[in-house]
């Protein structure tokens, strides 16, 4: 069915040898056409990439005339240009075309594949290179960022994004840990380490003194990470610190970050700048790492049944202390409730699925918890874009998916042959065990486009089947490669446990009971792949000790123009879209209309529902949308957000088909309790997850959008009766202050006519601070309408005087539709959907600056004329902005408080509107729609609000991530 290796194992020697027997992969075309180069199949265009500094508007990156396919979004092109193009800007060595970038990487892979004997002939190598090129060009998959940074350049050929280190109970080892970790951070990657071998602070040194304990050494590592980050790295240092649950210092470890969070609160209340990136936050410890506790089945069983649990010394394994398991579990959950740390890693589950236990246990993970393997090892990642395999009729391209996995896993294995590593220990382990991490992105978009709720049995069936097919195909190809260039060096001593894990994967696949057509077809093919792969593995072994993980897919997800990352659902139903030539527009996600069509809605209903989403940001009460279809459009945040257990159940559905684990944080609402956290952590163990972390909204002080400093002396909240939770926050009662207008104030009166109904609008303003009072007069004094208008005017005026921004009223009342409506006598507002629509458009024109109005899509007649002239000039020069806007389902100028459909004559203004400085990402847009701040950090590179990507965050503005990329 796919490209296959020649039968026979004559070429098998060791993984380091060249293939001398002449056997190799016979490569067949899947995506490409013989005689046509992939570059000749697409239309190319030149663009200018200009990135500005978010603080002062100055230009911090500029490269003009870069070459990309017309189909690539502005955001994808910007990120690739700024992140991945090599060479100094302004020099002849600087890359300027996507062709150069892809060729640099693919040519290196092809050359190495030929050198190490992967292909049967040069013709097969050429087809392989063309297929990889086509897939990268059409955003079918992407390698992880280090590949784009380093492969084919004079720099070390670093291809791995994920690292696991090891530290022993000696000062030399601890200092080596600092040095190795720093070297990895310097290169922009992250690492994880388990500190459980370090003796506890309750044990003695050989000199007779008391040991420092692992927590004290964490301080030094944390300071080192913070220094390297602040010394010029493009993102925060990404690191994971793990401690086993039976370590005598476990309670101190659990409390570290929660205690620091109390310190942050105290410093904030004293007036220090404790926001993320603030000047004073660096004085707080342990903020550069994710913390996780390694829990055993023994401990979780003790939690379940009640009873004691022994904490054991590191030197002799003797019991130092016996504690109550439930109390410790509650303490862990309490700390996670307070500050989102620690997460849990389920040790026995992890090692039950370990292919190489004879070499050593799995003790640690990378910072995002998806890579779990041997100490001093690394993993290179690549992710497939699942939406590229969804057919127009709702089917799934099973055959193309299988063949694509073959290409990608082959390329990933080839990369280990030429890769460089930050330390020799990591290099030796990785070359000997050849850990790979194929994964995917856009699962949430695929499910929505297919009309399947993320939190549903059908959605989980499809997800499990696709994941099983991916990993089954990857291991089948790995077995074929073992027959050509040999199994991994550590396979011989681990052959039986490796085969056992492969049988476990196959048995889990057999347990899927699909009900839908797509899930049935995918699972059927997955069964074939596992059967064939295990047969080949029994004969040849496997080339790779690990094949798959589910990574965050942050930067590369943006590169592939994915709507969703990794295993995540959609963040929200509306997002920003950057336009060629500058500017941006807010659109309803493209997945939504596709989902509605797959559910059988006619086109006119699709348009009405999309317009409702544009107006409200959610599907509740959308015209014609059946309530039973609401769950299809549930997202991670917003009006209808997926319940925390919905995320856990999805993780449990796909975990049995992943070699490693899943990078994902389970978001919980602010009102969640410690008991809710305990339930999530306990269910994660019961459902067979390998790792799990939670985040409760607003649990951290260092919020990027803090608006007021709490008052000292505010009363503490009292714990409800029966609660044993520690009170960690003070409730601050905030009272807005009314700022009255002076006795004498400037004002203006405008007469208007809307659909034949006449009236007067009088607006009074502060002498130096904008609108403060509104009076509306319509109909005769004493009539019902006059009374309603008077009351409405007073309400709006009081709101303005208490500090409600005018743009909030404008965004809420524009486009309100009721009679009278129609033509007006105002040249700047020719059509109005209602009197309210006209009044607040007029107020916006008179009292809001251009930048705010551009964000809201409200312009004067002169401004519209100027924009149309600019648009015409742009079209004449080849920059067709309006066409770009026309591709979106809702062509509306977008206020920061939510998408708003504008009158017809303003539609064309969207593309030319100046982008609003206050809204620069989908997360900020969602905050504006729901009126609530999201707990996401600001990008340290460009200042844009980041959005979640697995257990990390990614910046939609520049592509920077807070962890694995």
UniProtKB/TrEMBL annotation:
Name all TSCPD domain ranges: 742-845
Q: Which part of the chain is the Ribonucleotide reductase large subunit C-terminal domain?
A: 160-695
Q: Does the keyword Chloroplast apply?
A: no
Name its co-factor(s): adenosylcob(III)alamin
Which Gene Ontology BP terms does the record give?
DNA biosynthetic process
- InterPro entries on file: RdRp_reductase_class-2, RNR_2_N, RNR_lg_C, RNR_NrdJ/NrdZ, TSCPD_dom
Report the superkingdom from the record: Bacteria
Q: Where is this region: Disordered?
A: 1-20
Record GO terms (molecular function): cobalamin binding; cobalt ion binding; nucleotide binding; ribonucleoside-diphosphate reductase activity, thioredoxin disulfide as acceptor
Pfam families hit by this protein:
Ribonuc_red_2_N, Ribonuc_red_lgC, TSCPD
Question: Which keywords accompany this UniProt record?
Answer: Cobalamin, Cobalt, Disulfide bond, DNA synthesis, Nucleotide-binding, Oxidoreductase
Q: Give the EC number(s) listed in the UniProt record.
A: 1.17.4.1
**What residues does the Ribonucleotide reductase class II vitamin B12-dependent N-terminal domain cover?**
49-139
Q: Which reaction is the catalytic activity of this chain?
A: a 2'-deoxyribonucleoside 5'-diphosphate + [thioredoxin]-disulfide + H2O = a ribonucleoside 5'-diphosphate + [thioredoxin]-dithiol
Q: Does the keyword Oxidoreductase apply?
A: yes
Task of the protein: Catalyzes the reduction of ribonucleotides to deoxyribonucleotides. May function to provide a pool of deoxyribonucleotide precursors for DNA repair during oxygen limitation and/or for immediate growth after restoration of oxygen.
Similarity remark:
Belongs to the ribonucleoside diphosphate reductase class-2 family.
Q: Which NCBIfam families match?
A: NrdJ_Z, PRK06556.1
Q: What is this protein called?
A: Vitamin B12-dependent ribonucleotide reductase
* Protein source organism: Micromonospora humi
